[in-house]
Amino acid sequence: MTEHEFWQLVTATDPFAEPEQIAEELKKRLTDLTDEQLAAFDKHFNQKMRETYIWPLWGAAFVIAGCNSEYSFSEFRCWLISRGEKVFTSTVAQPDDLADFDVVPMKAQLPYPFLDEYDLIAGLLYEERTEDELPFVPSGLSEPKGKRFKDKAKELKKTYPKLYQKYWQMGLN
After folding, report:
1. Does the residue 173 lie in any domain?
2. Residue 12 to residue 79: CA distance in whole angstroms
3. What does the longest C-alpha to C-alpha distance in the chain come to?
4. What DSSP element (H or E) covers 111?
5. Whole-prediction pTM
6. Which of 106, 119, 120, 131 has the smallest set of CB atoms within 10 Å of its CB?
7. Domains in the chain: how many in total?
8. What's the Cα-to-Cα distance from 75 to each of 1, 61, 173, rounded to whole Å?
9. Domain that holds residue 77
10. Which Pfam families match (predicted)?
11. Percent of the chain residues past pLDDT 90, beyond the cut
């Protein structure tokens, strides 16, 4: 599976759809893949999850939605992958640039950039078909790469000026 094919499959058609709809859309797209293609897709997905396991991105997630746990950061990274290659690449390179894209859905009038278990869809499909699990690919990282972000408002405003202006005062933080 090529990088281009991966992005065609994983990118949500409607970035503002309900998380369940986005997950169902991916599941439908993956259903027609062979077992080998599913495994290749899962490998690409895991690589993207490892690539996003960085403190600067976690800081951006904290500014946008108060993301403060390993689990919510995983859901945020799944969500970011679902936004597509352009948003993903730009945001990984410079997390504050996420503010330049209109891709963050709202839930109860608060930013909700999370997709629960989006990273498990390929593995569950594979398991349904083969009654076997996809090979586990450990990240090898016990914590995110880079320097941990400082969660004081003054530091966040300096590090993430665009995100801070757009999301910080929404009542979540």
Report:
1. no
2. 9
3. 52
4. strand 110-111
5. 0.94
6. 131
7. 1
8. 24, 10, 19
9. 3-168
10. DUF4240
11. 88
